[in-house]
Write a structure and sequence with these properties.
mainly beta, 26-stranded mixed beta sheet, 6 helices, 42 strands, about 5% helix, globular
């Protein structure tokens, strides 16, 4: 079996190497002489106005349309997994319901703002972002700006901002994609991955529109295992192992192949009144669902060879769930009084369903037996959500050397979690009665301003600040049948002031120095405010409607240096001082609640180098080091001096892009150091179920333009079949082939 894996890997390497050699002589003189003139890249997220990355006052990475076509990502977050200082987390690959993108040592998605054409994707319940149902073919580019950006973008932008940007077509465009892939060894990665994408766009006079639909389906692979500290006598098949703390356990089964599907619809329409005034309307609908096939016991009776479900059958039962989300957006841009650029961005997001099923102690593989109490069968949890966002921005040039950007924003959020008992855990619609409910609302209004001042031809300063007034209200919790419930919570209001100073200095030709100091914040989520429940043992886990926002003060100093022709080096030092971190405190033996108790710091550097050649080759390498430490935690003093969770000490990428004539090629090796999920850093055991392991994986892509309207691509992920855990069993080696038609 091992020989088969390396044979396939060798074939892919041989094919891609051959393509590179063949490529060097493929481009005709006609192709070289007809290169279109490239427009300079611009970034809008760093300052809210269009500037080049060289002028930006922060560390910026842009993934352009051309790079997206070379990298061929299957999901929008996969487009970022080779950038310095960016942590893209997908524990199970495509099947991971909660993916995350985090920046610069500030873990958890709720501390990094994710935008889609200016629309906030961080959800109203927990601040997480679920990427299922978004497709990279819709994108024009992705912008990543790192550092504190609450001065411009408000809450969640503690670590920075990632913005996915789409563009309207300038002519008729039709795209049809279909692809299939699987693991090299059946059951080791996403088996039977099917992918389809269709889009149609056109521009008729001043009116343009774009429609697309995409879908993924996979039979998945085994990701979740059943463990036990004991094995019944007279059985065989148990696999000795350890838990993440190094204690001996046995793997006694798995919950079956983790299957997945998602799809997404995009509808956009735009009307250009004139070259400075336009109105764009957007509708997005994203869905996904995950489930499992039949579980697999590893234990068998020695006498009869019959399977044994130990410690109990319901431990083998998988959970399953899904989500349906709708996003409506409206963008209006114009110029008033010939100089005042105005932008109004409105959005309304509804999550119809965000659900999962939890099985009860009397549940069986075949379902729940007749007359089983619903309390013992299982329950379905569903959290519908709504969010409204309004953002009004003005930009005005002043005194020939300044650009003043100012405006205001309003955001309203609502989330309502209900848990209902089920007659049959296999049918999430077989609800019987309410088990639990918690809900609440938040609203934030803000004003912001930034002055871009060109002090000299070589030095530009940026002064910015934002004031946010945040309020939470209508908090309610009901744990049916438990003393002390239902509970209603009083409203609470907090304010935050987020100043920032930064500069861009070009002392010499080819040299750029950047620096900044700023403050950012994150408001508490509805989950942290109101998710209160009491376990069957009598312990209460309480939200806290009196929580204050978390804050961070960040410093950054960076150097961009052009070396020789086509060579560029970047080095950035950063420091984050976090305060009022939200943590769960143990008040007594039966009561725990969220409070603002923590302070922590992280510091490190990002270094990157790239070399581009005239014949279409780009080599790149980057390295990120992040040292972190919990400085103060009254709720749990044992964590003081420990590293922050979900934060590797080292990350790095090494790769190459090659595009010439009809061929393109991409290869990257991605390294991530081991990290801790335990706040006391006790989970030091590696290569076991539940651990977060160090890994280095290699991914490759190659594509060929068959003719003007048809292309073929082939890719391999983790081609050397690195075996590691990302809590769950991470995907092994896999391949994928895709045919694209463009008219």
């Amino acid at each position: 079996m091992i020989g088969k894996k390396y044979l396939v890997s060798s074939l892919i390497w041989g094919l891609l190497g051959g393509l590179m050699v063949f490529n060097l002589g493929c481009a005709t003189e006609k192709e070289e002489t007809k290169k279109p003139k490239e427009l300079p890249e611009v970034v809008v997220t760093a300052t809210r106005t269009e500037i080049t990355p060289e002028e930006a006052p922060a560390s910026v990475n842009i993934v352009t349309k051309e790079k997206l076509e070379i990298k061929r990502p299957k999901t929008i977050d996969e487009a970022l997994n080779d950038l310095p200082g960016v942590m893209v987390r997908r524990s199970k690959g495509l099947m991971d319901a909660v993916s995350s993108i985090t920046l610069r040592g500030l873990g958890e998605q709720k501390r990094t703002l994710i935008l889609f054409d200016g629309i906030v994707l961080n959800d109203a319940y927990s601040g997480s972002v679920k990427m299922g149902g978004f497709f990279p073919e819709d994108l024009e580019k992705v912008e990543v700006v790192k550092g504190p950006f609450s001065s411009l973008w408000g809450g969640y932008a503690m670590a920075g901002v990632v913005q996915f940007i789409t563009k309207m077509p300038e002519k008729r465009e039709i795209t049809i994609k279909t692809g299939y892939g699987s693991s090299f060894d059946r059951g080791e990665a996403m088996d039977d991955l099917r992918r389809v994408y269709l889009s149609y766009g056109d521009k008729i006079g001043k009116f343009s529109f774009f429609l697309s639909y995409g879908r993924h389906d996979t039979n998945g692979y085994v990701t979740d295992f059943v463990t036990s500290t004991t094995v019944p006598s007279g059985t065989y098949g148990a696999k000795p192992s350890y838990d993440r703390y190094g204690k001996p356990i046995y793997i006694v089964g798995d919950k079956g192949d983790n299957r997945w599907w998602d799809d997404g619809i995009t509808i956009k329409a735009q009307y250009e009144f004139n070259e400075k005034t336009r109105l764009r309307l957007t509708y997005l609908r994203n869905r996904y669902e995950y489930n499992y096939d039949e579980p697999h016991p590893y234990l068998y009776k020695a006498t009869t060879n019959q399977p044994v479900y130990h410690p109990s059958q319901y431990k083998y039962l998988p959970y399953f769930g899904g989500r349906i989300q709708n996003i409506w957006g409206a963008l209006f841009e114009t110029e008033l009084f010939k100089k005042l650029k105005t932008k109004l961005n409105l959005s309304y997001t509804t999550t119809e369903k965000d659900w999962y099923v939890t099985t009860g102690s009397k549940a069986t593989i075949s379902g729940c037996l007749p007359r089983t109490r619903p309390e013992d069968c299982g329950y379905v949890s569903n959290t519908p959500q709504r969010a409204f966002q309004g953002d009004l921005q003005f930009s005005l040039p002043l005194f020939n050397n300044q650009i003043l950007t100012f405006g205001g924003a309003y955001r309203w959020e609502y989330a309502d979690t209900k848990e209902k008992y089920l007659r049959n855990w296999k049918d999430e619609t077989s609800t019987v009665k309410l088990k639990y409910q918690s809900k609440g609302k938040t609203r934030t209004w803000s004003i912001f301003a930034q002055d871009e001042i060109r002090l000299t031809e070589k030095l530009t300063a940026y002064l910015g600040a934002r004031y946010d007034n945040w309020r939470t209200y209508d908090g309610y919790v009901n744990q049916v049948g438990t003393s002390g419930y239902p509970k209603e919570y009083p409203s609470n209001t907090e304010t935050s002031f987020s100043p920032k100073f930064s500069f861009n200095f070009k002392p010499f030709e080819g040299t750029i120095l950047r620096g900044s100091v700023g403050k950012a914040f994150r408001p508490p989520t509805v989950y942290e405010l109101y998710r209160t429940f009491t376990t069957s043992s009598g312990t209460t886990y309480a939200g806290n409607p009196n929580l204050k926002p978390e804050t961070v003060t960040s410093y950054e100093l960076g150097l961009d240096q052009k070396l020789w022709k086509g060579a560029k080096f970047q080095l950035t030092y950063f420091y984050n001082d976090m305060d009022d971190l939200i943590y769960r405190k143990t008040v007594n033996a039966t009561y725990q609640e969220y409070i603002n108790v923590g302070s922590a710091e992280s510091q490190g550097f990002e270094a990157s180098f790239e070399q581009s050649f005239d014949f279409g080759l780009r080599l790149f390498a980057n390295l990120t080091y992040t040292d972190s430490e919990v400085k103060k935690n009254k709720a749990k003093p044992k964590t003081e001096g420990k590293r922050l969770t979900y934060l590797p000490l080292w990350m790095g990428n090494l790769g190459a892009e090659f595009k010439r004539g009809k061929w393109s090629f991409y290869i990257v090796g991605r390294y991530v150091d081991k990290w801790f999920s335990d706040d006391e850093n006790r989970d030091k055991k590696s290569h076991v179920y539940g651990s977060y392991d160090e890994y280095f994986v290699v991914d490759v892509r190659a594509s060929y333009q068959i003719n003007k309207w048809m292309s073929l691509s082939i890719s391999g992920d983790n081609i050397f079949d690195k075996d590691y855990y990302y809590y769950y069993k991470a995907p092994g080696a896999s391949w994928f082939a895709e045919l694209t038609l463009k008219f």
